[in-house]
Amino acid sequence: MQIGQVNLGLQIGILALIWVAYFIKKRRKYFIHGTLMLVGVILNVISFLLVMGPSLLGFEIIRIQPLHEYSLITLTHAAIGGIALILGAITVISWRLQSSTKNCVKMKRLMKPTIILWTIALVLGILLYSVLYGL
Description:
- The protein has one domain.
- Helices cover 83% and strands 0% of the residues.
- It has helices at 3-26, 30-58, 60-64, 69-96, 108-133.
């Protein structure tokens, strides 16, 4: 099994964890929701640092043919995924710095775009994986 397969499985698992956290929030279990989101963001940061970042930097076609379809998919995936990761980190860091969940409502404006972007990034990542590895 190659690292790309492991990372793809991890990313699907992270998104599933985030969606579970979303439904837990609906039950007003905000602390559990926040903790699951924190775990998801931490796993994604680790995945980015160990797999996705080095892969992006080593993807030679981006430098040689920046307008090639592989390059465009990769750069779009990286940009959307990067934004989602930053928004997720901002959200969970600000939540962890609070002594109560009362101020978390203010972060709701970031939460919906984050999960939408995270989902789009995953779909693009699956597309990229299928193009590169023939899923």
